[in-house]
Write a structure and sequence with these properties.
single chain, globular, Rossmann fold, alpha/beta, 43% helix, four-stranded parallel sheet
Length: 274
C-alpha cells in the first residue's frame, strides 16, 4: 500500500529562507515519500501564530499521519504555541542555540530576521545585484549582459534553470543567466547564435522526459508543449548539443535545487561572494 501524503509546514517569523533550505535538505533524503509542503512566513505575532497552529491542527485532523513542522520562530511565547500543535515539531533554534550559547559563553539576542546580519554590507549589496542580474537575464529575455555572467544555464523549458540561477545569486552571489532550448532550436544542430561567443560559460541541465511531461502537463495540460513525444524530442536534442559541443551538464530529475547548485558551483569552480 502506498504511503499517505505527509503534510509539512515551514514556519518562520521572517522570510523563511533558513527554514525552507534546511527542511528541504532533510526531506530530500526520503525520495519515496509524497510530501505536501506549505510555507508560513512572517509568523511574528500571537494572532499569526494562532492562525498557523490552526492550519497545522486542521491538517492533522484530515490526515492519518501527523504533520511535520520545521520552525525558526524566535519569540518564546510564539514557539510555545507552535510546539502545542498536533505535529512533530523540529525547532531549529532550540536544537542549536543552547549548544552555541554554552560554547560561546554568551546569550543570544532572540531577535528575528537576523540571518543577513552576519553578512557585511558590501557582500549583501553584491548578492542583491546578482539576484537582479538573474532576473534580468532569465529565460533568454535579454542576452546583452552575458559578458558579465559567471555561468549561463541552458536546457529545455522546465528543467530547473530559473530556480537554480536565483538560488546561486541569493546564496552565493553568482551572476547566473539562463537560456531555454526551444522547439525551433531542436530543428538545428548548432548552438543558438547568442550563446556561441560564451561557450566557455555554458552549463546544461537535462531531465527525464517522463518527468518533464508531468511537470509541463500541470501548466499546460493536453498541449503539444507538454506531450511526451515533444518532451522526448527536446531532451534528446538538448543532450546531443551538450555532447557535441562538450558542454558539462546535469540530470536534474531527482535533484533538489540545492544539489543542482552545489554541483554546478563545484564543477565550474565558481566562488561568487560566499
Amino acid at each position: 500500500m502506498a504511503n499517505p501524503q505527509r503534510k509539512v509546514f515551514f514556519i518562520s517569523d521572517s522570510t523563511g529562507i533558513t527554514t525552507e533550505t534546511f527542511g528541504h535538505s532533510l526531506l530530500s533524503q526520503f525520495e519515496n515519500i509524497d510530501f505536501s509542503i506549505k510555507a508560513l512566513r512572517y509568523v511574528n505575532n500571537h494572532a499569526r501564530a494562532e492562525a498557523a497552529v490552526q492550519k497545522i491542527n486542521q491538517a492533522a485532523e484530515n490526515t492519518s499521519a501527523r504533520p511535520l513542522v520545521f520552525s525558526t520562530v524566535i519569540d518564546p511565547q510564539l514557539r510555545r504555541l507552535v510546539h502545542e500543535s498536533h505535529a512533530l515539531v523540529f525547532d531549529l533554534f532550540e536544537t542549536y542555540i543552547p549548544i552555541l550559547q554554552k560554547e560561546l559563553n554568551a546569550s543570544p539576542s532572540h531577535a528575528s530576521g537576523r540571518t543577513h546580519g552576519v553578512i557585511d554590507d558590501l557582500d549583501y549589496s553584491s548578492r542583491m545585484d546578482s539576484v537582479n542580474f538573474a532576473m534580468r537575464n532569465d529565460d533568454g529575455g535579454s542576452t546583452r549582459q552575458y559578458d558579465r555572467a559567471d555561468v549561463i544555464l541552458i536546457g529545455v523549458s522546465r528543467s530547473g534553470k530559473t530556480p537554480a540561477c536565483l538560488y546561486m545569486a541569493l546564496h552565493y552571489g553568482v551572476y547566473a543567466a539562463n537560456y531555454p532550448l526551444t522547439t525551433d532550436d531542436s530543428l538545428r544542430d548548432d548552438l543558438p547564435s547568442p550563446l556561441k561567443p560564451y561557450r566557455h560559460k555554458l552549463f546544461g541541465l537535462t531531465i527525464d522526459p517522463e518527468r518533464l511531461h508531468r511537470i509541463r502537463s500541470q501548466r499546460q495540460p493536453d498541449s503539444e508543449y507538454a506531450s511526451l513525444p515533444q518532451c522526448r524530442t527536446e531532451v534528446r536534442h538538448a543532450e546531443s548539443l551538450f555532447q557535441t559541443f562538450q558542454i558539462p551538464y546535469l540530470d536534474t530529475t531527482s535533484m533538489s535545487v540545492e544539489e543542482i547548485v552545489t554541483s554546478i558551483i563545484s564543477q565550474r569552480k565558481l566562488n561568487g561572494t560566499a
